[in-house]
């Protein structure tokens, strides 16, 4: 019997396939692809948009304002859904496609799924060079879409309509693989989108995808257990993989039962509430004194679901040279770093197996007592920095405290770049698990507001995204305030206006160079001593949002209550001190000139060499 087929264009078949994919969240079957963020151009409007328009009741399309920001919104959505549901982002060819490369890098660094569909040049090359085509004289097959190869987990270009039959399932499998999760890119040649093909009906049969939970090797589990049993001062580092595995409660119970304190990475923050009995604070360069002290004297570190980036490890100066690592990770690449005992497997399943194999072993009670004492000191330090003062301009710490107190139990905090990450990582006291999104894997300026829009979509009105960002980031990408108003997806945006790129100015001056080209007053502008002030509240109002400038912390407190009661996106701005920061005590390895006429730079170079002398050497 001949195979049953259905004749569709490639674009129609692609969309029909997306509509046939499902997943389960909390026992309920839902579409795997929740929607499409799209900006149409000649490379995707005549064929792909025709297919999307026909299914908008099943696969809604949302118009973005910028290709990068709409893809960042898709990433914020996926993060809020803990990688269980995926959004699509589509653009035309050329500059539209290239605008999405930064967002693809953000997804790649953070191990987050997004399906990127970009228009491409003609497969037949007859009309070449087409509008927006960048020609490579020695390789006519190269287009701007090849730029995605460096920032995609899966990359393909469709030049024949039947190629999607093998390509699309591979793209989905990649995005749902805990070990290989990241962005999938598919370039769609313009002429191929229009071509009809007799597709097998079986290709479109509904499929329910589940997330695999790979179990660890028994021998590695046994080795991990023996190593843990030898620990005098063990420590658990909880990373983002704990949240994506849904292992928060399991790891927290394990920590309490075994008497091992937990510290959190930037991506892992929010796996525990702030005052959980095993919680000892965020670790690393923008971490707490409590977590970093525990890291410094730990002999065995159980790292769960973390890629151990430099902000977690203090550029590998935060730990004793003799400390040993057990790394639990679904990705072999991450588990094998820095001479760790790698236990490759799902976080939840691996912790359960290690817990069972440990039998009645527990760490010395003194270890948890030490952690709780250090964490109490840390909270006292936070209180000191967050209390209001009579200073004319409030600090980041004070602003974070006001917003934190006003936030609802399930409201989501979203931040990414500048001075805000360090202040919220240290000072935001998480009230409910999985309500904290700090994108600092790529530290992508512009993520914040876009991700707030995606987060609002993911939470469907059950909570309010609270976006915190600086004036510099706001100026870089703010158009999704308008998107959120258009689509009725409310968020609260708090702009801390410190007059430029203050945190990078801090690093610049700390390493010996006078303030230069970061704070507005130090830039090449007409009125250096009194730069033009941007009224962020009025700017937001011009995009249809509510806006209010706050003159004081008390004003901010009342404005937050007002914002919570509003029916649409609200932007609050407040002047913030560019030079006051909550202290941290982890080192960071950055390049400092080996030769300089400045004494301040030479001193910074000598200090940097001291830092490098403390680094663990690993792979």
From TrEMBL:
Keywords: Hydrolase, Thiamine pyrophosphate
UniProt record, GO biological process: inositol catabolic process; isoleucine biosynthetic process; L-valine biosynthetic process
Domain Thiamine pyrophosphate enzyme N-terminal TPP-binding: 36-132
Residue intervals passing through the bilayer: none
GO molecular function term, any single one: flavin adenine dinucleotide binding
EC main group: hydrolase
Residues covered by the Thiamine pyrophosphate enzyme central domain: 221-351
Gene3D superfamilies membership: 3.40.50.970, TPP-binding domain
InterPro entries, alphabetized: DHS-like_NAD/FAD-binding_dom (IPR029035), Myo_inos_IolD (IPR030817), THDP-binding (IPR029061), Thiamin_PyroP_enz_cen_dom (IPR012000), Thiamin_PyroP_enz_TPP-bd_dom (IPR012001), TPP_enz (IPR045229), TPP_enzyme_TPP-bd (IPR011766)
Source taxon at top rank: Bacteria
Entry EC no(s): 3.7.1.22
PANTHER family: 3D-(3,5_4)-TRIHYDROXYCYCLOHEXANE-1,2-DIONE HYDROLASE, THIAMINE PYROPHOSPHATE ENZYMES
Entry's family note: Belongs to the TPP enzyme family.
Protein's name in the database: 3D-(3,5/4)-trihydroxycyclohexane-1,2-dione acylhydrolase (Decyclizing)
Organism in which the protein naturally occurs: Stappia sediminis
């Amino acid at each position: 019997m001949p195979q049953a087929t259905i004749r569709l264009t490639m674009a129609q078949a692609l969309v029909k396939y997306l509509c046939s994919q499902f997943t389960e969240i909390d026992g309920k079957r839902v579409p795997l692809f929740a929607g499409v963020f799209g900006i149409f151009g000649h490379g995707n409007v005549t064929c792909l948009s025709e297919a999307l328009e026909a299914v908008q009741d099943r696969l809604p399309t949302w118009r973005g304002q910028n290709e990068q920001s709409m893809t960042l919104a898709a990433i914020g959505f996926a993060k809020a859904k803990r990688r269980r549901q995926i959004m699509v982002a589509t653009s035309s060819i050329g500059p539209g496609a290239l605008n999405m490369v930064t967002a693809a890098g953000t997804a790649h660094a953070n191990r987050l799924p997004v399906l990127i569909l970009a228009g491409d040049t003609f497969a037949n090359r007859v009309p070449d060079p087409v509008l927006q085509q960048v020609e490579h004289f020695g390789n006519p097959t190269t287009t701007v879409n090849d730029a995605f190869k460096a920032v995609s987990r899966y990359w393909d270009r469709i030049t024949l309509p039947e190629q999607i039959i093998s390509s699309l399932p591979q793209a989905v499998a990649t995005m749902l693989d805990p070990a290989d999760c990241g962005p999938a890119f598919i370039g769609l040649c313009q002429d191929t989108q229009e071509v009809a093909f007799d597709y097998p009906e079986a290709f479109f049969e509904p499929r329910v995808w589940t997330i695999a939970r790979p179990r660890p090797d028994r021998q590695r589990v046994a080795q991990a257990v023996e190593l843990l049993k030898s620990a005098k001062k063990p420590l658990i580092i909880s990373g983002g993989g704990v949240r994506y595995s849904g292992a928060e409660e399991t790891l927290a119970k394990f920590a309490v039962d075994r008497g091992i304190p937990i510290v959190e990475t930037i991506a892992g923050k929010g796996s525990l509430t702030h005052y959980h009995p095993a919680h000892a604070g965020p670790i690393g360069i923008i971490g707490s004194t409590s977590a970093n002290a525990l890291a410094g004297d730990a002999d065995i570190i159980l790292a769960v679901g973390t890629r151990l980036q430099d902000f977690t490890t203090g550029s590998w100066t935060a730990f004793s040279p003799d400390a040993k690592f057990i790394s639990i990770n679904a990705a072999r690449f991450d588990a094998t770093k820095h001479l760790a005992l790698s236990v490759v497997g799902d976080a939840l399943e691996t912790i359960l197996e290690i817990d069972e194999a440990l039998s009645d072993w527990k760490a010395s009670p003194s270890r948890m007592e030490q952690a709780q004492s250090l964490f109490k000191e840390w909270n006292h330090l936070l209180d000191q920095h967050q209390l209001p003062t009579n200073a004319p301009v409030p600090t980041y710490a004070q602003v974070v405290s006001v917003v934190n107190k006003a936030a609802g139990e399930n409201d989501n905090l979203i931040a990414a770049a500048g001075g805000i990450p360090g202040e919220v990582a240290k000072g935001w006291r998480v009230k409910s698990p999985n309500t904290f999104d700090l994108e600092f894997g790529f530290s992508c300026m512009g993520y914040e507001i876009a991700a707030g829009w995606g987060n609002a979509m993911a939470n469907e009105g059950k909570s309010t995204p609270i976006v915190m960002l600086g004036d510099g980031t706001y100026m870089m990408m703010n158009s999704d305030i308008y998107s959120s108003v258009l689509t009725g997806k409310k968020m609260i945006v708090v702009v801390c206006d410190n007059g430029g790129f203050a945190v990078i100015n801090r690093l610049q001056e700390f390493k010996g160079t006078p303030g230069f080209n970061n704070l507005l007053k130090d830039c090449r502008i007409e009125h250096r001593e009194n730069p033009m002030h941007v009224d962020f509240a009025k700017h937001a109002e011009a995009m249809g949002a509510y806006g209010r400038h706050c003159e004081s912390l008390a004003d901010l407190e009342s404005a937050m209550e007002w914002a919570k009661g509003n029916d649409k996106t609200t932007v609050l701005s407040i002047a913030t001190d560019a030079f006051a920061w909550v202290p941290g005590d982890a080192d960071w390895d950055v390049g400092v000139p080996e030769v300089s006429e400045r004494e301040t730079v030479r001193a910074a170079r000598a200090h940097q060499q001291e830092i490098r002398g403390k680094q663990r050497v690993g792979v």
